[in-house]
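Input chain follows. Return structure tokens only.
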Amino acid sequence: MKKAILLLNMGGANSPDEVEVFLKNMFSDIHILPIEFNPIRRLVATAITRWRAGEAKSNLSHVGGRSPLIGNTKKLLKKLNRKIRAEAVMRYTPPFAKDVLEKLRRDNIEQLILFPLYPQYSTTTTLSSFEDIFNTITEMNWGDVAIKTVPPYYRDRQFLQILAKSIKKGVPNPKEFHLIFSAHSLPQKVIDKGDPYLDQIHTQIELLSKLLPQFKSINLAFQSKLGPVKWLEPSLDKTLEKFRGEKVAIYPISFVVDNIETDFELNIQYREVAKRLGLLEYLVIPSLNDSEEFIQFIFSKIKE
């Protein structure tokens, strides 16, 4: 059986011109902006895009004019393709599901393995990406393709051990550091409706804490809040205030591939916050990206 693995992610702007594409598509997603009436949701998405585009383009300029996610994903795909056909499907920027799936059908692929680059499940990420794939396959009338989905791996033992090893490697003397797991925030109302993301984050940190006893403390904070609604707390900036004069290491627990939120928000924006607050040291630990350990983990999940 000819197989292909699809790495699913939100996407990122490949140039300043794609910023509006990313924002418009993201806020047109009912899982992101839960307005049932499509025309109204699109109007609101257009307004938010106009409001956010300038700042988003400015942020992009600080990391070379394109999302780091693009290059990092290409490196990951190159290594995976040594053993299996691998493609990326992005939710809000190219490569889109329709283009990738049409290419795979032409190549007579018989099974698709969907691997979300989200360790935790959320309706705003995993479900949105899965629906995108399944809806596109239905529109294509590609009914004879087999589909396998990789479940959330936030508590997978092998995955946790890889993370713990990566974190230890990134912090030279953990006994001197407070470790902060920085998670992408969500509106509180998403969690109140039953989204399991927050519970899975807590579970993952509890399990990782047992593998990382060397740190002075282990903490959870949230980044990327947008708009006036109530978001998950505590925010990263408020958490950093607790560690004036201390050494802090940050790990982006919601991601496995570095992107604009890690390379700009954590490495640039919050580094300035840490400097202003007088932190003694501020480290950002890279995501797993195309590390050999993560490659082997992906292959192990494919075989299950």
